Every structure is written in C-alpha cells, then in structure tokens.
Amino acid sequence: MIDHQVRVHPSAARLPREEQLAWKLAVVATGTQEAGELDPDAAAMAANRIIDNASVAVASLPRRPVAVARAQALAHPAATPGASVFGTTGRVSPEWAAWANGTAVRELDFHDTYLAADYSHPGDNIPPLLAVAQHTGRSGADLLRGIVAAYEVHVALVKGICLHEHRIDHVAHLSAATACGLGALLRLPTETVYQAVQQAVHTTTATRQSRKGEISSWKAYAPAFAGKAAIEAVDRAMRGETSPSPIYEGEDGFLAWLLNGPESDYTVRLPEPGEARRAILDTYTKEHSAEYQAQALIDLARRLREKTGPLDKVRSVVLHTSHHTHNVIGSGANDPQKYDPTASRETLDHSAPYILTVALEDGGWHHERSYAPERAGRPETVELWRKVTTVEDPEWTRRYHDPDPERRAFGGRVVITLEDGSVVEDELAVADAHPAGARPFDRPAYARKFRTLAEGIVAPDAQDRFLSAAERVAELSTTGLDGLFPAVDTEAVAAYDATLPTGLF
C-alpha cells in the first residue's frame, strides 16, 4: 500500500493532475483492470454482497419510499437495452434503475457497513454498477471487477478522510467510489474516470441533517442519489466534458471549505500497482436491521436479558461506548426524537436507547415488528426506554479507531442497576456476525438471510434460481445478469404502486 498525502494547494501552484487525489483514485480503478484476475476471496465476498443487497431490496418492496423511487424510475423506460428494477419486469434508463434499486437496498438499513474515520455502506455501490453493466452489455466478471474496485476506493476514503466531524454526509465518499467502480467496469481511461470522480464529488456533497433529529425517508434516497449522480458524471466524462479541479485540494475545494480548511492534511492509503484489491474483505454486513453501531448492542442485550430478571425492577441502564456511538445514535446526540415513541422508523433505527430497550424486552430484533408504532408505544417499553442513557468512554473510543481490524470494537459495556442497588453488567466488542465475532457471516448465512427476507415475496423456486445466479456471478453473460433480480409477484407490487399519489413524471 502507498500513503498519499492530501492537502490544500493554491490555484497558482497548478497542482499536476497526477498528484491529485481524484487522479490517484482513478488509477486504482483503471489499475484494477490491469491487475489481471481478481483476488478470489474478494470476488467471493462481492457475490455475497450481491445476495445481501437483493435480500433487503425485496423485503423493502412494499415500503413507501421504495415504491415512490420505483414509480419515478418506471416513468423513464429504456427501449434497448436499459436496466432492471427490483419488483418489476420493465427496463428503464440505467441512472433511474440505480435510483430505484439503490433506495430499495438502503431503505431497511440492513446491508453492509464499514466504519473507520467516517461511516459508509459500501454495498450502495452495487445498484449503479449493476444497472450500467446491464445497460452496456457487460458480463458478470466485469461487474465483479467494478464492485471490487468501488469497495477499494470507498474503504480508502472512509479510512483517510472524516466527513462527519464537519457535518458532511458520507455519500460524498460513495459517489467517488461508484465513479471509480464504473470506470473499472467499463474499462475507461484514467482521464475519464478522473473527471467523473470530480464531478460526482462536486454534485453529491451535502450536510448530515438527513441523519439528525427527525430522520426522514431521504436517508434511503441519499445513496441512490449519489449513485445516479455518479452514472451521470461518467456519461458526461465519456463525452469529453471536464469537471471542477482539483476537487479535493483546490483552494475553494472540498478540503478547504468543507473539511479542515486551508491547513487540511489527510493521508489516504491506496494499493500499489498490481497489488490485489482486497478492501472489500474489511467490510461487514448486518444480522439485524438497525444502525451498525447497534448490532453488538442487540446481541449483548440477548445475553443480559437472561441475567437481569424482571425489567420493571430496573432503575437505570447506562451504555458505556465510543464517541461515535454516544454522539450519533446515543443520548449524546441531544436529539429528543431518540426517545419519542411516535418517531419515524428512520429515527428509531438511529436510537441506541430504543434499540437496547426493545432488545432487552424481546431478546431479539425484527426488521418490521421491532419498529411498529404499537411496539414503540407500549407503556412498559416507554418506561424502560426513559431509563436508558449512553456515555462516552475513552477506552471504547480508542478501540473504535484501533488500526488493527482484529481489535477494532463497535460495541460497549452495559451497566444495569436494579431497584435493590444490585448491578448487572456485560460488554461486547463486536456483533456476533462481524468477521471477528462469535459466528461470522459466511455464504450459507447470506443465503439464509435472503430466504428469510424473501419469504412470502419470492417463491421458493425463484429463490433457488436467484441464489444459483449470484453464486456463479463470475460466469454470467449479459443476459445472465437478469438472474440477479429475484422474480416477485409484480402484479401485487403494481397494485400497491397504484395507490400512491402521482408526481411530475
């Protein structure tokens, strides 16, 4: 790996493009083409994430934000060849397929994650890559190459550049990664990818208000918007158009005005020429439909529930955890909505106090029932919920940022004080499904997750066909990519869509 220093340069310095971060990211993409065969473990994990995305996408088909995105996409049909949309048989323009499918994948907050200096859901790269692969007649092997390249760039940016401390939303890293993935998929020249990265970053930088206070449905749309914008940026770059440059290092650019200012100095570590692209193996998926930093809390609550006894005897519950968890999904966020029984699903998904409460009561988690209004509004739940707080523990913050992925921790220690003064406590560093956890997710676990979420939506024989296609994605032809969209009852989906208000399209 090579460490690249990224800092602000005045326009008069005329920073050569070969020294700009956007160019170096583009080189990673085009170098993925030249590196030959993909690392087999990385390729296998990419296939797992295709399964993971489809699992959560089909489960979210009847949800309103997904239906709205689908309706918007279907208003932009493509005669030949176009791209598929989950839940339909139609083909649409690829950027609109990325919009609809990206929203479906993100809606339940139930796919993969990578946490370091910043946050990310690198699986959000897959919908736009799959859409463009279908539209341009690429193979399954081409798709895998694009996915592995996108993950490589995404992980590097998340490790090296923190956005959230400046209240910038993490999709700015996503759009750059998607543009690089598309470059690798399509075997584009480095110059074209370089221009596309800059245009994508420029147009997808937004604040984190979408994840603050009363969280709206835009949380599901945000990565889909980034994917759509990346496709459009690549299209413009392929036509010879240029972009704001240097987007990262410019004196009026990303670092200078949105991050650490003129004195910005970041280190982004990227693979050497010819080095295997294995960053996807550093990422991890979710067993539970909740914010990743709550995954270990749900597993820990299952253990604590057996030790605590009657929950009406609880005086207080305190979670000792990292700065990120305390301030983003904990009481340190100072969002009263995190304790509101009428809050949106998106808000409850980002409330560690709520998630810990329900997991203690139920001993588990369900992607729909755990968020139901009647579940959140139970009087005994609300009573316990009000007793749950979080505090930052410097040791957990240090472990959150440990450079060794084997020691990195995203959990915490829960201390439950009962009415009689006795204390029950336990801690868990990572979720059970994490690569370093008690039972890491493997291919059979991804298949089980798909079958569980597809039950009642995808017929058993259609489930089998999808899993067969996903497990041999490297061998798929262009037409074979259609098999990565599980067949569902499209009439039922269309009937639901017909109940929605209409828009402009």
UniProtKB/TrEMBL annotation:
Keywords tagged on the record: Lyase
Main enzyme class: lyase
The keyword Lyase belongs to this UniProt entry's keyword annotation: yes
Matching SUPFAM superfamilies: 2-methylcitrate dehydratase PrpD
Region (Disordered): 323-343
GO molecular function, one term: 2-methylcitrate dehydratase activity
MmgE/PrpD N-terminal domain sequence ranges: 35-265
Presence of the UniProt keyword Lyase in the record: yes
The protein's Enzyme Commission number: 4.2.1.79
All copies of domain MmgE/PrpD C-terminal, residue ranges: 288-472
Catalytic activity: (2S,3S)-2-methylcitrate = 2-methyl-cis-aconitate + H2O
Any Pfam family: MmgE_PrpD_C
Subunit structure: Monomer.
Homology family: Belongs to the PrpD family.
Protein name: 2-methylcitrate dehydratase
Lineage of the organism: Bacteria, Bacillati, Actinomycetota, Actinomycetes, Kitasatosporales
